[in-house]
Amino acid sequence: MKVLFATTNPAKVRKYAEELKKKNIELITLKDLDLNLNPEENGKNCIENAYIKAKAYYDATGIVSIGMDNSLFIEELPEEKQPGTHVRRVNGKELSDEEMIEYYTNLVKQNGGKLTAKWVYGMVVYGPNGAKEHTWSKSHFYFVDKASNMRNPGYPLDSIAIIPEFNKYLVELTEEEKHSTKRNDANKDSKVVDFIASSVFDSEE
Length: 205
Known about the structure:
CATH class: Alpha Beta
Oligomer: single chain
Helix content: 25-40%
Shape: globular
Largest sheet: 7 strands, mixed
Number of domains: 1
Strand content: 25-35%
CATH architecture: Alpha-Beta Complex
CATH topology: Maf protein
Structural class: alpha+beta
Distance between the termini: 13 Å
Number of helices: 5
Number of strands: 9
Strand order of the largest sheet: 2-1-3-6-7-8-9
Order of helices and strands: EHEHHEEEHEEEEH
């Protein structure tokens, strides 16, 4: 079954496509359909934004659609300075990967050179029977004010995120080290895959 992942971020698609394929679900993208609606993501949190995206693309295509959004929370910052759902959008501008790295390294410099961070994720699957939602978080890293020279396209903050377990940039971890960190997240990622699969097949009923 084909399911539309309503994102322009290829890294998000790669993260789940292989495991979903094993469950007979083929992820297709906005690029595959040459479609870009730009729905206004004005939700109060990542679940609301994920819902806006999933519903907009389902309404436009009739294809079961996945919307995903994430919020960034930084422990040392006051509420009014939290990136929240506007991780990439700053002062009304959508930042490129390199602009994000520049902005967040400057933010770290302004606040002592190290900031403890947490990602909160929201996902909504929207189909003919309505919406199903799922949320989770990851918090085993901190940001520093000097970026790695390495890049992970679509995830620029991996270049300034340090994994305490290895005292290395996330983007510089070896495959073995990534596997070790993934064990911490494997159960969460597995639950996301199961959530997508169960929601998609529920939509067929």
